[in-house]
From TrEMBL:
PANTHER family: CENP-V_GFA DOMAIN-CONTAINING PROTEIN-RELATED, GFA DOMAIN-CONTAINING PROTEIN
Record keywords, A-Z: Lyase, Metal-binding, Zinc
Natural source organism: Microbulbifer hydrolyticus
InterPro entries: CENP-V/GFA, Mss4-like_sf
Name of the protein in its database record: GFA family protein
Length: 146
C-alpha cells in the first residue's frame, strides 16, 4: 500500500497519507488560485481515515472559505495544507504540491476551467470541465484543438 508524506514550507508541520489518493484534478476555480497564489491547484480527495498529522498540528490555522469548507494552513509559513468539509467529515481535500513523493495515480483532468486564469493556457490534452466533472458539467475541447 502506498504511503505518502508531506510538509509545509517551514517544515513545522508534517503529515502522512496511507493508501492511494482519489482522482487527481487541477482545479482552476478562483478560490484555489488565490489560496495557492498559482494558476491552479492540483488536488485529490482522500478519506479522512487515510490522513494523519505527524508533527506540528499545534501550528495549524483554519479559514472558512465557504459555509462548509475550511482551508487549513500553517500559521508560521502560511503554506496551504488541507481542505475539510463540515458536511462530509469523512473526506479531505489534499493539494499535491506539499507531497514528498509522487502518487501512484496520474492527473485525470481539469475542473472549474470556466473560471481559469486568462493568462494560463491548458495544453496537456487532458479532459476539461467547466465545473465539477459530472452529469451536468460541460466537457470542453482542449484549447490547442480549437
Ligand atoms: Zn509551516
Ligand atoms: Zn478550486
Amino acid at each position: 500500500m502506498q504511503k505518502l508524506t508531506g510538509r509545509c514550507l517551514c517544515e513545522a508541520i508534517e503529515y502522512e497519507i496511507t493508501g492511494e489518493l482519489g482522482p487527481i484534478f487541477n482545479c482552476h476555480c478562483s478560490k484555489c488560485r488565490r489560496w495557492h497564489g498559482a494558476a491552479f491547484r492540483t488536488r485529490a480527495t482522500i478519506k479522512s481515515s487515510q490522513f494523519k498529522w505527524v508533527k506540528g498540528d499545534e501550528h495549524l490555522s483554519g479559514y472558512h472559505s465557504s459555509e462548509n469548507t475550511v482551508k487549513t494552513f500553517c500559521s508560521i509559513c502560511g503554506s496551504s495544507l488541507i481542505s475539510t468539509y463540515d458536511e462530509s467529515p469523512d473526506k479531505i481535500g489534499i493539494p499535491l504540491g506539499g507531497l514528498d513523493q509522487a502518487p501512484d495515480n496520474k492527473i485525470e483532468g481539469h475542473f472549474f476551467v470556466g473560471s481559469k486564469s486568462p493568462w494560463y493556457e491548458i495544453d496537456d490534452g487532458l479532459p476539461q470541465y467547466d465545473e465539477f466533472p459530472g452529469s451536468h458539467a460541460k466537457v470542453r475541447e482542449t484549447s490547442h484543438q480549437e
